[in-house]
Amino acid sequence: MKRRQSPSVRRGAPLAATILALLAGWGPSLAEPPPSPALSRGRALYESRCGGCHSLDAHRVGPLHRGLMGRQAGRVPHFDYSAALRASAVMWSASTLETWLRDPEALIPGQQMNYSVGSAEDRRLIIQYLGAATHDSPP
Ligand code: HEC
To answer: Which atom of ligand 1 lies at the shortest distance from residue 50's CA?
Structure first.
């Protein structure tokens, strides 16, 4: 009986190690408190309104957003910004993002995003989400 069990125990060990490694990898997110309803709504809005062109960690039609808050506009490497964004001295903050999402052309004339968010409440939720999500280190 003992001889028969041991191979399966040995087979089980790598699996257990894999599960432990996965759990360790997921540890930080498991340890985080669940996001507040406002952050969840902000995230859903970000994904539906911005996600077609942006993501946190990869350039798409628009630049990646990781590290956005406190960064100067037009400065993420390897993204082909408009001349207007590259020349801009705007610093991304809740207040510059509010203007940008209301009317990008009003903040940086000549920009090429040309996409705005009409609802003040949606802008607030998206900016709150960006503030919370973009300062994390990449996965
Ligand atoms: C249709 C595509 C598109 C959509 C939708 C879009 N963007 Fe953009 N975004 C861009 C492009 C393109 C740029 C670069 C503009 C330039 O270089 O002039 C940009 C630039 C930006 C920048 C400046 C980043 C930097 O590194 O300076 C921010 C911030 C931004 N977008 C936020 C958002 C948010 C938040 C949303 C959703 C509400 C959104 N964008 C929706 C295409 C888009």
So the answer is: 37
Global pTM value: 0.81
Measured CA to CA, the distance from residue 17 to residue 23 in angstroms comes to 10
**Residue 101 near residue 90 (C-beta atoms within 8 A):** no
Counting from 1 in the atom list of ligand 1, the atom nearest the Cα of 75 is 26
Q: Which tens digit of pLDDT belongs to each residue from 42-88? A: 999 999 999 999 999 999 999 999 999 999 999 999 999 999 999 99
The Å distance, Cα 104 to ligand 1 centre, comes to 9
Nearest-atom index, ligand 1, CA of 73: 27
Distance 96 CA to ligand 1 centre (A): 13
Handedness of CA 12, 13, 16, 22 (dihedral sign): negative
Q: Which residues of 12-44 are buried (b: 16+ CB within 10 A; e: fewer)?
A: eeeeeeeeeeeeeeeeeeeeeeeeeeebebbbe
How many whole angstroms from 50 Cα to the centroid of ligand 1?
8
